[in-house]
Design brief:
The protein is mainly α and 259 residues long. It contains 13 helices and no strands. It has helices at 10-16, 26-39, 44-47, 69-72, 102-113, 120-141, 146-152, 158-169, 174-185, 195-214, 221-230, 234-245, 252-258. Pfam families: Retrotran_gag_2.
């Protein structure tokens, strides 16, 4: 995917992502942030724990992300290979068991990192990751209020910031969920509909279900199938039910194939 990873201006963000100020704004803000980050090619930095290239750290019995940043990966871009002892590409400490103290583990990490050097390839990989990570952090921190920024700006990655904001603002909105449920049951495909009409009809269901999912309202496949069959013209529904009855794996995705 082609995307710009330059740091956006506030005007650019303001035009595309609404400011998050309360729980009622969260759904709209989250959708806008995801779309914006996708366009900037940094979506994985907020929806996945995209670790930088120096955080490949298979350390037995150890939660690597619990370490201070200085032990595992620097926050700012490296200026040269002389700081490689603080940007550790890979850590394997087989001699430490689950009873090792934090001091023993930290000492082993520092010893491992001593005298290591960064190759040109690793330095390039880190720079690419860091540029995208800074952009993702900028998008998030520029679209939340100052008091929330103060609480979360020291979190180590954009994903941690996004998760914290999500935990704080994402709540079940009964009124919005009820509105979506009514909208869902009001959908129907008119008699004489074309193939394009059927695609639009199905995509509308997918969009509504996605919104319900973001509100933490689950709809199982059986209910989805029943709702969509009930929204079809009689002749479509009879034909689809006939085909459906012969299928052994009755899933929501299969219904679209038959439709």
């Amino acid at each position: 995917m082609s995307g710009s990873t330059s740091i956006p201006s506030w005007a650019d963000l303001k035009d595309n992502v609404p400011k998050l100020t309360s729980t009622t704004d969260f759904e709209r803000w989250e959708h806008a942030v995801r779309v914006y980050c996708l366009g900037k090619d940094v979506l994985e930095h907020i929806i996945d724990h995209t670790l930088d290239p120096y955080r490949v750290a298979p350390m037995p019995h150890t939660n690597v992300d619990a370490y201070p940043e200085g032990y595992i990966a620097g926050v700012s871009s490296p200026k040269g290979r002389d700081i490689a002892a603080h940007i550790i590409r890979e850590i394997v400490i087989d001699e430490l068991d689950e009873d090792a103290t934090n001091a023993q583990i930290n000492a082993a990490v520092q010893q491992w990192g001593a005298n290591r050097t960064l190759t040109d390839d690793l330095l390039t990989k880190w720079s690419v990751w860091a540029r995208r990570e800074r952009l993702a952090r900028t998008i998030l921190l520029s679209t939340i209020t100052e008091d929330v920024v103060i609480d979360y700006e020291r979190l180590p990655t954009a994903r941690f910031i996004f998760s914290a904001v999500e935990s704080r603002f994402k709540t079940l909105n009964p009124e919005r969920a009820s509105l979506l449920q009514r909208e869902l049951h009001s959908q129907y495909l008119p008699r004489g509909a074309t193939a394009d009409d059927a695609v639009t009809f199905y995509e509308k269901f997918v969009h509504i279900y996605a919104q319900l999912s973001r509100l933490q309202v689950a709809v199982n496949d059986e209910d989805k199938v029943a709702i969509i069959l009930g929204a079809l013209p009689t002749e479509w529904a009879v034909l689809l039910r006939s085909q459906w009855s012969t299928e052994t794996s009755k899933t929501w995705s299969l219904l679209w194939v038959l439709l």
